[in-house]
Amino acid sequence: TPQLFKEELMAGSGDITVWINSPGGDCVAAAQIYNMLMDYPHNVKVKIDGIAASAASVIAMAGTKVLVSPVSMIMIHNPMTVAMGDTAEMQKAIEMLASVKDSIINAYEIKTGLSRAKLSHLMDAETWMDAHKAVELGFADGILGRADLPEDVEPPAVTMLYSKAAVSNSLMKCSLSGNTWAGSTWEGTSKYTKQTKEQNADGSYVTITADFRKYSCVEDSISDHSAYLLGAKNGSRLRYDGLNGCTDYKKAVQIIKDGGYATSLTYVEKLCSIIERWNLVQYDVKEEVAWYRVRKTWDDSKSQKGAFKILENAKKCADANPGYKVFDASGKAVYAPAASAADVPFLVKVSITDLNIRTGPGTDHARTGKFTGIGVFTIVEVKSGKGSTAGWGRLKSGAGWVSLAYCQRL
Q: For residue 85, is pLDDT > 50?
């Protein structure tokens, strides 16, 4: 607590060293500790040997000199709270958070000299900095153990700064020449342009500007990268042949490197070091889990309604969505409910104004010249037919048949 910290701080005299390894906590308590250190009459050396995240990063800014371990991180983000009440109370909470953010920026601004706008953007993105990036941006003054390193050791050519957006949109180019794979979660259009560095065989670096895939969430990014690593082909051959089922992480990383995933000459060593430092093998799946996905077709990943460990649950989902099937992990359809087996009557919602009504179930039947319009309608019969993988539904009104591919079942 701030009181215990104060008692220990005042118990001695002279220069002090504060070691920090904390995920953060209460911002008010952090402000008290920050102020105590700022008011301390002697030098305060801050050493971050693990993580200084959230409120802990504010405390670190009070150091006369801030040093970060080569394997440590600093994380800054917007303050958070829990509030309840009416709109007036919610507005008060919003104003309070804005004031707290301003006060936190004060500490960062004093230490780094960065503009308040820049700092605000970094906080908005929930930014993670490695040691070199922290020094580069001014959040730290140096790196722990630097004096003990050989003189010929140079800092890395590329420092690391992470945000939620950066993790979600980790570098997967929009166009990957010579690569094809099924099951991609990328919808094919969203992208962002970024400069990045690639390493040549002689160790030199080149900066490139390219379009990269933009994902709506981290889960989609992980899913697409996984599908790529397991299914990408160069011609008829798997680019990362041998990766699927590989349980030796060192061998798996080498397969990824040999397949051309990364240009860094030290990619294998760096990735293995991260795996070992954080004991990431503890999260390995001990037994294979079979996932069943409910989609219109295996290649149409955007139509996916869900992924299920239990086949019966996947079947229920397919039954509730006409035109959908259940696929196993290999892309094989293991269940396809008959369209005629759909429970009728049922309600559907139409959200477009120009859904054609036809005289029969299929595009080979004539249009009636009328549209459903936006609304909720009752389907009394379902049949398969040309032009709609989801089947065709007969309207209770007797007006005709509509494609269920453009309807949402209620």
A: yes
